[in-house]
Amino acid sequence: MVGEMTNNGRIRQAFPGTRDLTSTEGSEYGPVEFTREDVDALLHERIKYKSKYNYKERCENTMDYVKRLRLCIRWFQELELDYAFEQEKLKNAMELNEKHCADLEVSLKEKEEELNMVIEELRKNFSSVQVQLAKEQTEKLAANNSLGKEKEARLAAEKLQAALTDELAKTQGELQTANQRIQAVNDMYKLLQEYNSSLQLYNSKLQGDLDEAHETIKRGEKERTGIVENIGNLKGQFKALQDQLAASKVSQDDIMKQKDELVNEIVSLKLEIQQVKDDRDRHIMEVKNLQDEATKQNDFKETINELEGKCSSQNKEIQELQDQLIASDRKLQVADLSTFEKITEFEEQKESINELQGRLEEAELKLIEGEKLRKKLHNTIQELKGNIRVFCRVRPLLPGENASDDAKTISYPTSLEALGRGIDLMQNGHKHCFTFDKVFVPSASQEDVFVEISQLVQSALDGYKVCIFAYGQTGSGKTYTMMGRPGNLEEKGLIPRCLEQIFQTRQSLRSQGWKYELQVSMLEIYNETIRDLLSTNKEAARADNGVSPQKYAIKHDASGNTHVVELNVVDVRSTREVSFLLDHAARNRAVGKTAMNEQSSRSHFVFTLRISGFNESTEQQVQGVLNLIDLAGSERLSKSGSTGDRLKETQAINKSLSSLGDVIFALAKKEDHVPFRNSKLTYLLQPCLGGDSKTLMFVNITPEPSSTGESLCSLRFAARVNACEIGTAHRQVNVRPLDYRLSLG
Fold it and tell me: Domain residues for 592?
């Protein structure tokens, strides 16, 4: 390989392992290149001798070998120097680059400070321009308002004048009619007088007729008097109308006078300006005439000088006025330029602000779309995995509960991956962390909760089986979450909101050819007994001992559907009908007072809505089921203080919830046998927990420090539920409607 020349003039090897064809091997002072093969050959070279005893030859060969070794060593030393020189050069270049980078950073900081100052100044200018623009707009708006008021006043005066003219014409017509009636009465009076004279000739024979004639005359006089009074009233009204018309004419004349005065003032100002110009021209002409006369008559030099002085003073005044006018024009131009620059600057800042706002809105939209996509992907993953989704809701502290910061046991992580999904619980100094599909803080409204489940409710209309149930200790807000507060529209629970959404969506899908039929049933499981809450027979609904005399059996068919025998099923067509049924069921539901809750639900409430849809255009049928369940609250006897019937209810509730826990444990461990038949509750929820259903559980907890143990148990149970895989839900399409017995899925 051919060596390359460095900056110091030395020849160094570029790549070892090749021979330099231009090397001057054997020269003591010339530049020499050694390759790896040359060095290896030199080190392993064995000196060959022609004669073993020729010491001179051996000495020469040895000297030659030593000389080549020295050349190789010198070449290595030079190569080492080259490498040291290159290293020093690179080090210096690196220091220069670092220094340059530091200078660039300092200059960038200075530029940034300058730009910040410029931006601050632009913001101040922008605010001042905004204030000035707002002021100008206000003045313009005030001028427009005054002009509009003037136009409205003029139009009102014209309308009033037209109305008064019409009223005057109408009054004149009525007056003419009254005059005609008076003339007719006068004519009649003349005729009566003539008739009276003729009657006087026959007084002896027609005395009775004369009396009647007198009475007729009196009536005529009374009518005449009434007509005269009416004419007087009409004249007064006519005079009043004339006065109003005159007043309106006066006001109109005043307005026109004001307008004429303004016009005259403008004309006078124009005339004054023209007169000043004419005076200036006249003085100039006089000066010229006087100058012409001065050439002819030298006797009037003094007069001419005076006139010239006057003319020069007037010219000076005119020049001063012209200078002032030019200065004013310049100031006006400068002001126009500055205004134009400010407007341009304002427009640029406005465009930059709009651009920044557009970027901000775009970023917010991307954030919202990303959050929607995350939720959608999360729901898709959960559906594919077949997991039961779990939402956690923490109720607010009630009046009388400990609300101090030291007593708070619940906190919410703020990390990005756990935000809105994590909850931490402190107990005895130990922190327990949980993560669910969604966590609602105490300030979350009923609307916020419903928004998260609205898509799941929509699945019921699409032909899926959907189950939503609330779990938690007594007093944690389960019934409030599901039913809400009666009479308060903003605090409606999930059940009323779900029904409103379903009816609204049903109405909107009619345009696509869909027709839906909805059926409702409501039951409660009280002391391991099923009660029909829609039953109209109160004795059948609830006996004295709390046990319904009628037996309601849970049946499963071959298609995997479940229905309750002899349960009342009601067709519904509006939310009003469903609200009436919910009120009826609430009155029939078992509630009681305990030490932990003033109005404690003593039974498991199951609301079922069966949806049958048919599309006339595609002849497609769908069947969906929506189960909304309010479980009774778990409680400890030591806290609830239950006795008698409350004690039996508590034992039955805890037993059914314990059976639910056993089912969840079996599902989590994927055991072959799942004990659904251990209680009526688990047997009824078998399609929701065991397979073809989209299931969501609300775990409700209370922030009260005294309930930390129960809250921890609820959260641990919810975590096990969230880990259960129950299989992927399937849509029910092209299935003929079942009988009127409502299925639970």
Answer: 450-541+550-701
